[in-house]
């Protein structure tokens, strides 16, 4: 069977679908722990090779509000098109031009390496500022207590918050 998220031309010839497991190690993603990853694709072969399907995985993330670690499951659409041949942008010095066509990848030689494509899809799926839950209350800006575990005794915002205090002092300058 196919291994290492790499499909040789020989294998591609025989395949019209593909599924494989992955984790952070197999896709070379050091920054975010990924477990239970699975890619399931159908492969349409013609002038282009179209890889269409889903990736699912569990990511261990740090909440942007409260700073606690939590696990989140993802199930995302996956779409990539591969063209056999030389990338016409390869001779151009500006790599920016290639970004217009991120979904379309040129490949040569022995086959298609899905590793980078999966890594990219995983990174894209994960929000920039993940939340451990929709209503995470975050930490108190004064004492730093995680408010998901209960209130602290600091003066509450709203009414006489720091902004009002600040503006008041400013006015009396
Ligand atoms: Zn949180
Ligand atoms: Zn507090």
TrEMBL record:
<dbReference type="Pfam" id="PF02620">
    <property type="entry name" value="YceD"/>
</dbReference>
<protein>
    <recommendedName>
        <fullName>DUF177 domain-containing protein</fullName>
    </recommendedName>
</protein>
<dbReference type="InterPro" id="IPR003772">
    <property type="entry name" value="YceD"/>
</dbReference>
